[in-house]
Design a protein that fits this description.
769 residues; alpha+beta; Beta-Lactamase; 5 domains; eight-stranded mixed β-sheet; 20 helices; 40% helix
Length: 769
């Protein structure tokens, strides 16, 4: 939909009737990525990628760097930045990643000290042939607030444990508010791609009126703003009254337009939006995008009563929350969809069992069975010149309009709407003349069927909503002139959305897709869908593995640079450094080595799926002997004796099975008890699974310190340990995660038990192919 056509005819008519002379389409057409200004908290420099010459500078550089924009233009960037920033190894490595990710910025891991001695956090991104550098005064020389990493890790775990959308959103807003200190943080969910939004979670100061459950008109966030939210995870406004800093030159000679600031953290925002925030008493704000399948699901919106500018570390943490929330919401949605499909699959199986050899007769004779595949009020079948309706009466004219819509669809394509009267309306303002010969459905899920159709429909379901402003009058004159008026509970009124049904969910669409395959080629199409689902799942897993592998490789290079730099400093200047500085440099080197170890573990973890399985019949005793060749010395060092039972032949990849046993044997040594005899036993026992089916279970039992029952699921998480990194011989905490992944790739399962005598039992299965 073009931006100029974004407002519906009904909204345009309401706007004209409101009067006042303010045209809302000005908001829609405003090029918010080309405003030519940045927030004055930091400065912006755009330099040539190949020559390092400053081409664009914000006009507040004198306040921060001691030179005017005019003095900087045409000069090498390193004149003011203190060294050749384009040659900075860490920056180059980070920018290589931005090439892959498109629009994302790279943050230098260490502050930059300019020629004047000032410290700045620096982010950079490529824009056309320019390197855009954003310099923000460094607020924290430690690069991260104490405990920030741990707090973020714990918060992410809390979000990942949520099982409903409401719980996820509530956890996210709570954690973001604790991290940032904003007075109000809400989760805001869009009804659809261009529709209004609802506040579905809130954490706010006690003196603020609650917004939970309020709906905000679609006009509050116009299309170009939604596109930027979709492209960039975060947008921060430090002070709505900040006049900002312009760019010099205002227009780029090569384009005749301002520098494109789409990816700039310092980018200022629309004057309309700033007016909007002032009218609701907000001085600072932040928005973090929440995406679903690369579309904008909603926002985590933050409001402050005082000016606030967040450090890059905190902004990065908030971006991570948005990403984690997006992933968890997708997981919940997929799980709910899978559950719904399970219920519908039973209806599909009944349909398959009852269908006759005549597809034409079957469709009409089994309209009730087809209707059970989707949660709807009625079903329409048009096929072979006949029409069957099950449910409330539908006007013949509506059926004919649906046939016209179906004729324009591709075979198997699903078309849906929850506002059919607006689509079929003959008048430009979205109204009908009321002359239909029977009630119209409000929502339709439509599938083409040759020259006919299969459709599920829903009647009107009026929904009472609390609006934070009148959705019929998106713009009014406010105290600051012809601008958006305050949104708040003082303006709330009850509105009833007419002519709409309950929206169709992804599960509804999937159920319709199942019906299409059943009608076209029931059994074959169903098998194809299953195969396609598995391919997409495998591709998704492959993409995740490739990401982990690439991320680990790309991060190891700057880590080596950090570690080597610390070592060189100590070697070259140890005599001139005090004990505190030497200790800090040693900490840098040690943490870099620790991170390098974690990345090695991440690579191993990702390679478990990247490498194919070569399953053969192998004696478990042979695999154990190979594992002891690697882990035996570690066991001997800790005085752990090895016992084995009668070990059968199993079906497994020998190398991967060896990895499993090595990890478990090393854990037995690492977590051995302090006194008394120490042992680890490998055996195979016949046990019942959770379904009561007897199966062979490989049991690796030790008499070590054990794992409390409440932590036994937790330890299978990647990088999860129940001790500090420096205790129990260190380690990355990836061992049991790798074990679980290998076993599950073999089609088995793994779990822990605590034997009556103490210690730990790791149990896993290796089912035959």
């Amino acid at each position: 939909m073009a931006d100029d056509d974004w407002l519906s005819p009904r909204a345009r008519a309401a706007e004209s009737a409101a009067g006042g002379g303010f045209d809302l389409t000005e908001c829609v057409r405003e090029p918010i990525h080309l405003l030519g200004r940045v927030q004055s908290f930091g400065v912006l420099l755009a330099v040539g990628l190949h020559d390092g010459i400053v081409r664009v500078a914000s006009d507040n550089v004198h306040d921060r760097l001691g030179l005017t924009a005019g003095q900087l233009l045409g000069r090498p960037a390193h004149d003011v930045l203190g060294h050749d920033v384009l040659g900075h190894d860490v920056l180059e490595a980070a920018l290589r990643e931005t090439v892959r990710s498109g629009e994302n910025s790279a943050l230098l891991p260490e502050p930059l000290r300019t020629a004047s001695g000032a410290l700045f956090d620096v982010t950079a991104h490529r824009r056309d042939a320019l390197l855009v550098l954003e310099l923000e005064p460094c607020q924290d020389l430690s690069r991260a607030r104490p405990g920030l990493h741990r707090r973020v890790q714990q918060a992410l775990l809390r979000i990942q444990r949520c099982t409903t959308v409401a719980d996820c959103c509530a956890a996210a807003v709570r954690e973001v508010r604790l991290l940032t200190g904003y007075q109000r943080v809400v989760a805001y969910r869009f009804e659809d791609e261009d529709g209004p939004g609802e506040v579905v979670a809130e954490d706010a100061a006690a003196h603020l009126e609650p917004w939970l459950g309020l709906w905000f008109p679609a006009s509050d966030i116009p299309p170009q703003a939604r596109r930027l939210y979709q492209r960039n995870w975060i947008r921060v406004i430090g002070d709505v009254d900040d006049p900002g800093a312009g760019l010099d030159p205002p227009l780029r000679p090569s384009t005749g337009r301002p520098l494109d600031l789409s990816s700039a953290a310092l980018r200022t925002v629309s004057s309309f939006h700033l007016e909007y925030l002032r009218n609701i008493g907000v001085r600072s704000s932040m928005s973090v995008s929440v995406l679903r399948d690369d579309t904008l699901w909603g926002l985590i919106a933050c409001h402050g009563e005082e000016p606030v500018w967040l450090s890059p570390d905190v902004r990065s943490a908030c971006e991570l929350f948005g990403s984690a929330l997006s992933v968890q919401l997708a997981t919940i949605d997929d799980r709910e969809q899978a559950t719904a499909l399970e219920h519908r699959r039973a209806a599909l199986e009944r349909l398959l069992a009852d269908l006759s050899d005549s597809p034409a007769a079957s469709l009409h004779d089994h309209a009730d069975a087809l209707g059970a595949l989707v949660d709807a009020d009625g079903t329409i079948v048009v096929h072979d010149g006949a029409t069957t309706v099950r449910g409330p009466a539908v006007a013949g004219s509506v059926v004919e309009r649906l046939r016209s819509l179906a004729a324009g669809l591709r075979p198997g394509e699903v078309w849906a709407t929850d506002r059919l009267p607006e689509i079929l309306a003959p008048h430009a303002d979205g109204t009908t003349d009321g002359t239909t010969d029977a009630p119209e459905p409000a929502g339709v899920l439509l599938l083409p069927l040759g020259d006919g159709l299969l459709a599920w429909y829903r009647t009107e379901r009026p929904t009472a909503r609390c609006w934070a402003s009148d959705p019929a009058l998106p713009v009014r004159l406010g105290p600051h002139g012809e601008r958006l008026t305050p949104r708040g509970s003082s303006a709330v009124f009850r509105a009833t959305v007419r002519g709409r049904s309950l929206p169709w969910t992804a599960a509804d669409r999937a159920g319709a897709g199942e019906a299409t395959r059943a009608v076209a080629d029931l059994l074959a199409r169903h098998s194809a869908w299953t195969a396609d689902f598995n391919r997409r799942l495998q591709r998704s897993n492959a993409d995740l593995d490739a990401f982990a592998h690439a991320a680990a490789h790309e991060l190891k290079e700057p880590l080596r640079g950090i570690s080597n730099a610390a070592i060189f400093i100590v070697e070259d200047a140890a005599a001139s450094l005090d004990e505190v500085s030497l200790r800090r440099l040693d900490t840098v080197r040690r943490l870099a080595a620790r991170m390098d170890s974690l990345l090695d573990s991440l690579l191993r973890y990702s390679q478990v799926s990247a490498v194919g399985l070569d399953r053969v019949r192998i004696p478990l005793a042979t695999a154990l002997d190979a594992a002891l060749d690697i882990a035996g010395e570690r066991l001997a060092e800790h005085g752990v004796s090895v016992m084995r039972g009668v070990l059968p032949v199993v079906s497994a990849d020998p190398d991967r099975l060896q990895d499993v046993l090595v990890n478990l044997l090393v854990n037995a040594a690492k977590y051995a008890r302090e006194d008394g005899p120490r042992f680890v036993c490998v055996d195979v026992e016949r046990r019942d699974d959770e379904h009561g089916t007897a199966q062979d279970v490989v049991v690796v039992r030790d008499n070590g310190i054990g794992i409390p029952p409440e932590h036994q699921d937790e330890v299978f998480g990647l990088f999860r340990r129940l001790h500090r990194p420096t205790e129990k011989g260190g380690g990355s905490g990836a061992g049991l995660a790798i074990v679980r992944r290998i076993v599950e790739r073999h089609g088995g399962s793994v779990w822990l038990r605590t034997p009556p005598a103490g210690g730990t039992e790791v149990c896993f299965t290796l089912p035959d192919d």
